[in-house]
Amino acid sequence: MATSQPIAQLGHPILTKKAQPIEDISSPSIQQLIDDMMQTVENAGGVGIATPQIHHNKRIFIVCSKPNARYPNAPDMPPTAMVNPEIVSHGNEQENGWEGCLSVPSLRGLVPRYTYIEISYFDRNGYKHHAIYTDFLARIFQHELDHLDGLTFVDRVASTDDLISESEWFRQYN
Fold first, then answer.
1. Spatial contact of 117 and 87, defined as CB atoms under 8 Å apart
2. What is the average per-residue pLDDT within 88-102?
3. Confidence band of 128 (pLDDT split at 50, 70, 90)
4. Annotated catalytic residue 144
5. Computed from CA positions of residues 96, 99, 104, 108, in that sequence, does the dihedral angle turn out positive or negative?
6. Could you give the dihedral angle defined by the CA atoms of residues 129, 132, 134 and 136, in that order, rounded to the nearest 10 degrees?
């Protein structure tokens, strides 16, 4: 049974550690971890979540884009567990975009990200996938991959001028 987990907040040491690769995707503990992540991100209204955010040091994240209160214009994508994900290649173009994070609930940051990425990952059944993500889905993937490398979006902003409170962001941009 899936259980929603507490979300690590900015400043917690787990958010600065590099996550470890998964050796046995089929293990009951990894399958339970994926279920718990799915439940947690759904309850929190996020479009993605990475294992460090729920206090685990494994290379897994969930991408689950859909329009919601935090991202009203997000595209629809079924919740997808991505194990040992990586960017295989990327385009040259980057775009600044506002990002929020379940681990940084009161801030948004203007973050540069590649608009085109080629990725690979294993699904929860151990099958390898290759895909091309653009725009918002590429942003989510890069944001979650950063979590696996011990980074948050705050590490990516060019200056504190690129940070805004979430309430002010909603007032100005929605």
1. yes
2. 96
3. very high
4. yes
5. positive
6. 0
On whether the CB atoms of residues 126 and 26 are closer than 8 A, the answer is yes
Q: Give the tokens for residue 76.
A: 């629809």
Query: 44, 7 in Cβ contact below 8 A?
Result: yes
Domain ranges of the chain: 13-173
What pairs with residue 117 in β-bridges? 90, 133
Give the C-alpha separation, 164 to 167, whole Å: 8
Q: What is residue 70's predicted lDDT score, i.e. its pLDDT?
A: 79
Q: Among the options 95, 144, 166, 168, which is catalytic?
A: 144
CATH homologous superfamily for 13-173? Peptide deformylase (3.90.45.10)
Task: Tell me what pLDDT residue 73 has.
Answer: 84
**CA distances from residue 5 to 26, 45, 67, 103, 125 in whole angstroms, order as listed:** 21, 13, 22, 12, 22
Question: Burial level of 69, CB count in 10 A (0-12/13-18/19+)?
Answer: exposed
Stretch 92-113: mean pLDDT, rounded? 96
3-state secondary structure of 44: helix
Rounded mean pLDDT of the chain?
95
